[in-house]
Amino acid sequence: MVRTRALALLALALMLGAGLRFYRLGTAELSADEAASWAGAAAPDLRTVVERQRSLDPGKLALYDAALHGWIRLGGDGAGSMRAFSAVLGTLAIALVFAATRELMLDLGGAALIRRAEVGGALAALIAAVNLTLIDQGRTVRMYPLTLTLELLQIICLLRAVSIRARGPGRAASLAGIAVFSALAIASNFTAALLIAAEAMWLGWATVCSRVGARARATNELHLLSPALALCAGIALLGPMAPMAGRTSIVVVHAGVLNWSHLRPPSWPLEMLRSASGKAPFMLLLPLAIYGGWRMARDGAGAALGFVLWWMLAPMALVMAVSYAFTPFEEMRYVISSVAAFFILAGIGLAEIDDARLRLGLLVLIVALSLDHVRRDFIKPRYVQWREATALALAAAPPGGTIAVEPDYAVNVVRYYLPPNRRASVEAAGGQCDMRQRVLILSGAQLLAPAQLAALKNCDPLVVGQLRLVEVRKR
């Protein structure tokens, strides 16, 4: 009965999640960030994909670009087609949230916690399925759904490997999975290293607890050394690329690529979880997560609680440490796996409510509030009208003239909406007045210094058209 209920909830989560992620995928126009992914992945061969990625989208390796390159070869480079790759990964992540919760509670919490493991996992999957933040990521041509999917796969392998139940070929496969998925997750985005660091911290904490104190009983039967070695093996797999990746990251920071970010207050982790959950759903999810953690501690699942707390809190703490010590770095998408851990705690808390009517009522309320959050976001267009602006600029540009774009990073989205034979005529405005014949596509005016904005408008004083968040100008 418990498993049937859990599988029914999981099926509902997958249907809702897939529907929300695939709904009218091609309606919104490509963003400047998505166009950077397209520009790299649309290269004619994998070698060119890797070369382009280093300049177009630094701060990661070319794993996502290579995967998207293969997807484009199969389905084309239409906005809806490219976003479908993320939608598939986002739907898969829903199932992986269920699997990660189940492994967490069975491998670290004890086999007696079957309701908490399976029903809690299904509830966590349903929360993730209707969450706007995860839906947005699953509808965007960026690497974050791939990174989250690989992180969840790695976590599942780690939980299986540390369990005392793990023996023989299954445990060897889990150890290999830790190494492989650790390397792939970091290759997808360097911020996955935050999760690897959190897991290393938990392994150290569990090792100490297995030797001293009242917590020893909860951890002294876990396999800890071999998973730690598997984490090291995953890092070693990236060894040949580490020097290049390190240099790239330093260059990116010095070049000011992260200058758009700003330092957040110490309350940022709580504010981030609130923003990721939605204001109204968060008012229910936070108490449920606290209740779930309390029940886990009370019922002898201290090892499971310790793991999920390290998973959730350590990446956020590391991001804040980097931000305060070096450069602002506190962005939700860099710690998206922590959001998944928060949903897992909330799902476990909801499963622990003994009153079935209260549990159902809270679930319906969370889903309704989350879906309303999604509905309001879907009906309010916020994307820049790059396609219309590009068409206006193309019509207004003189023969052989240049189409300049401000901000510079939006060059590729204009190229995306131009015919292939005109893409070479697009260049970054660079915030400068160019006396050659040109048309200017101007967006993000609020991010420019007043003097710089005034100079651009004086250089191209005639407004060809004003659209949502962008305008086209010429002299």
Q: Could you describe the 3D structure shown?
A:
The protein is mainly alpha-helical. Helix content is 66%, strand content 5%. The chain has helices at residues 2-22, 32-41, 46-56, 63-75, 79-108, 114-129, 132-137, 144-162, 168-188, 193-209, 216-219, 225-237, 242-254, 268-277, 279-298, 302-325, 336-351, 356-378, 386-396, 411-416, 450-459; strands at 402-406, 426-428, 438-443, 462-467, 470-474. It has a five-stranded mixed β-sheet with strand order 2-1-3-5-4. Helix 20 (411-416) links the parallel strand 1 (402-406) and strand 2 (426-428).
In short:
The protein has helices at residues 2-22, 32-41, 46-56, 63-75, 79-108, 114-129, 132-137, 144-162, 168-188, 193-209, 216-219, 225-237, 242-254, 268-277, 279-298, 302-325, 336-351, 356-378, 386-396, 411-416, 450-459; strands spanning 402-406, 426-428, 438-443, 462-467, 470-474.
Which features characterize this protein?
475 residues, five-stranded mixed beta sheet, mainly alpha
| Rg of Cα set | 24 Å
| Main structural class | mainly alpha
Strand count, sense and closure of the main sheet?
A: 5 strands, mixed
Please bin the fraction of helical residues. Answer: 55-70%
What share of residues are in beta strands? 5-15%
Order of helices and strands: HHHHHHHHHHHHHHHHHHHEHEEHEE
Rounded average pLDDT = 88
Number of helices: 21
Principal-axes geometry comes out as globular
SSE map:
Elements: H1 2-22, H2 32-41, H3 46-56, H4 63-75, H5 79-108, H6 114-129, H7 132-137, H8 144-162, H9 168-188, H10 193-209, H11 216-219, H12 225-237, H13 242-254, H14 268-277, H15 279-298, H16 302-325, H17 336-351, H18 356-378, H19 386-396, E1 402-406, H20 411-416, E2 426-428, E3 438-443, H21 450-459, E4 462-467, E5 470-474
Parallel strand pairs: 1-2, 1-3
Antiparallel strand pairs: 3-5, 4-5
Helix pairs in contact: 1-5, 1-6, 2-3, 2-4, 5-6, 5-8, 5-16, 6-17, 8-9, 9-12, 10-16, 14-15, 15-17, 15-18, 16-17
